[in-house]
Amino acid sequence: MIHVTATESDAVRAIEAEAVTSRFARGWHCLGLAEKYKDGKPHTVNAFGQKLVVFTGADGKTNVLDAYCRHMGGDLSQGTVKGNEIACPFHDWRWGGDGRCKQIPYSRRVPLRARTAAWPTMEQDKLLFVWNDPEGSKPPADVTIPKIAGATSDDWTDWRWTETVVHTNCREIIDNVVDMAHFFYIHKSFPTYFKNIFEGHTATQIMKGVTREDARAARGGGGGPRMLGNTSVASYHGPSFMIDELTYHYEGYDLHSVLINCHYPIDQNSFSLHSGIIVQHSDALPPEAAEASAQKLSDFILLGFEQDIEIWRNKTRIDNPLLCEEDGPVYQLRRWYEQFYVDVADVRPEMTDRFEFEIDTTRPVESWRKEVEENLARREAQGASA
Amino acid sequence: MTTRQDDRLLDGPLVPVACRRCAAEVLVRKSTWEQTSIQWNAAARAACVGLQDPHDTCPALRSAIQEAALTGAIKIVDGEPAGVRPAVDGEERSTKNDRRVMADE
Known about the structure:
The structure holds two protein chains of two kinds. By secondary structure, chain A is an alpha+beta fold.
């Protein structure tokens, strides 16, 4: 047996966690498919600790306002869209997308101060984005979500979109950016290369992986072309919207897809988690097959979310994770993430300065290969005895 | 939110490495030959001329780091903290680990 000499290593490591901040991140947040909000009806969206109303006026512009009418507190999201305005169900006060009361049909004039909170919106790549800023500033031109060419191309599928409510603080999903090992243990994938780059308002994860033969065997082998592995280049652009250029390598061809992993906070202890996927058509993957692949991938991503959620449901929040050398840069990621929770004037250089971290995957790959082989051997032995 | 420091930096800090192609000086840590952390600052980022794809590491800087590791200018931290993991059968332990780990019974 082996033990460590009596040093600081004898002290019990305490888990530390400060109270979750009451502030919500500054940045663009995606509310899902833009089309959903274009049905001429008001939509209730619980986000940033508030109730919002999202509605599209006759002019085609989608607006986001605080849901509570400044008159007597009526819920605008239960109201009616009239022209370009949302009418309160309580007394028919009409509110414009700019947050100003435009008309009170039973009154001669609109009172001064008849202004409510309005969130800047943006529609891009068939998605609706809302800008949250505790300081109330307009979105700067250089803080953008990059365009996704495939989202508006004929030779890509349409979005397959999912929405799931998760009951934990959204920092948990951000941590996944640097968490290589959980991809093996939770998601049954097999990373062989892993690198992070944080710079400005983007945080990137570059991951290459191979197919896990034990997971494939557990799925019953599966017909069709054999998947060899995948290459993923995934970046958060701001605090909540990740674009993942995800290529699956099959025997004889590559499948190109773009995966969106995004969320908006509902409150401090819950968030709405969305996934979206589009798949490129190719000779190996004509439109119908691409649609089928997109659906399969979407189901697979949802399964991955469920695997994460199961962990989050039971884990504790931890501000001082104890890391081994084969873990990613959790602290540096959180330092990057903090820029969205402080005033613009308080963003420190170290939050946005470029940081690169490449994991040595030698040991993990060696260990995981062994585990996969053991799982396969056990499976074979069980099959033989059955 | 308090910004905390990565405890791993206690086992091996970030140390400066200067690129030989440009004026960039960055902070580097290597836990093994294959693991690398690179902390840039604004001055280094502005000076760098070799970083074409932001997802890459600048090739000139990569060489400078490799050289610094070879010459011992930056120390490679042992990737396996002593005593945390029992020896696997047949695995050789470094003398450094032997010094910090005692055999019991």
